[in-house]
Amino acid sequence: MKRTAIMAACLLSFGIIMGACSDEKASETKHDHSMTYTTNSGDIRETTKSIDHLPTFLNNFEENVAVLYQQAAKHKDLLEHIPCYCGCGEAARHKNNYDCFVHETKKDGSVVWDDHATKCGVCLDIAAESIAAYEKGKSIKEIRQMIDDKYKEGYAKPTPTKS
Length: 163
Description:
alpha+beta, five-stranded antiparallel sheet, 5 strands
């Protein structure tokens, strides 16, 4: 009995220590089978079961923001090649404009959304401009050049996007 109590105390202590060492705050809440947490940079991340299920943090925004979030998620192959110029590369460790909207797409199809873009006009503008140009037939290389030219002066250092 004493050994069981000691083991339980050790496991609890280990859990507390691991939580304190985590890169993100453990403030999880459940909404319709989703998980929400806040990162150290203050961004909210919410997991939904698929790309077709938008995060609840978008409920407080106009419909055009939700539409852009869904379009960004559907244009992963494009936006992973487009840098963001808002400073999120250093502040939030983003690697590209896609990261401002989606943190991760898991193997089971669930999506970990990031609310960073809801707080940043630069992120939203870059995604909207890139998607519009792509849908007009421009290549990823042309779009990348267009974004780099437009945002090279007066904005933060670009994310370390793959070329």
